[in-house]
Design brief:
With 197 residues, the chain is α+β, with helices and mostly antiparallel strands. 38% of the residues lie in helices and 10% in strands. A hairpin with a 7-residue loop joins strand 3 (126-128) and strand 4 (136-139).
């Protein structure tokens, strides 16, 4: 509130938004918003300004854009930790599949902020996309089907189901008739087969 008069002098039509950005920058000084796709950056800054102004909810960025080398390092470390590529893919994707590398993914904090973003982020095109990652949101033009974990995209494509695309292309989930078969094993051990997309 104290920053609004100063922000008004700088940008009269956007004083609240600007004041929120300054306040959030002070609260989360180590965040790095560089490298995010322009639409992702705009969606995130507007969503968290609304969360802060209207509901007093803080939303910080833990991780946004990652270059391919950093994503590869994270993926390789997870493969070593878990002992297999398929187990690692449940938590992190290789660079060629990661939305972080395209600047479309955000890992946020705290949990209350993630809850706010899950409830209201769709207004800005920000969606939680994996059941096992409460912190991970991606910019999408249409709400995606939520998957159990990051590696589930590969499972869907192996079994003939289309998950969707990025950017201005449409998102849809269109299983082929032979892709939905209750005799197949669930996508992950903890998944209820009745919830399978």
């Amino acid at each position: 509130m104290l920053l609004v008069p100063v922000a008004f002098c700088r940008a009269p039509g956007r004083a609240r938004f600007l004041a929120c950005q300054w306040a959030l920058g002070l609260r989360f000084p180590a965040e790095d918003l560089r490298g995010l796709a322009p639409e992702t950056l705009a969606a995130f800054t507007h969503a968290r300004a609304e969360a802060f102004w209207r509901d007093g909810q803080l939303i910080g960025l833990t991780s946004g854009y990652r270059d391919a080398a950093e994503q590869h390092r994270i993926f390789t470390a997870e493969v070593r930790r878990t002992g297999s590529v398929s187990a690692a893919r449940r938590r992190v994707l290789p660079p060629e599949e990661s939305s972080h590398v395209r600047g479309l993914a955000l890992d946020v904090r705290p949990t209350e902020g993630a809850r706010w973003l899950e409830r209201h982020g769709g207004r800005y095109g920000l969606y939680r996309v994996y059941d096992n990652e409460w912190w991970h949101f991606e910019y999408r033009t249409v709400a995606p089907v939520r998957l159990p974990h990051p590696g589930a995209v590969a499972w869907l494509s192996e079994h003939g189901a289309a998950y969707g695309r990025y950017g201005d292309e449409s998102w849809r989930y269109e299983p082929r008739p032979d892709a939905v078969d209750d005799s197949r094993p669930p996508m992950c051990a903890t998944e209820d087969p009745r919830r399978r997309p």
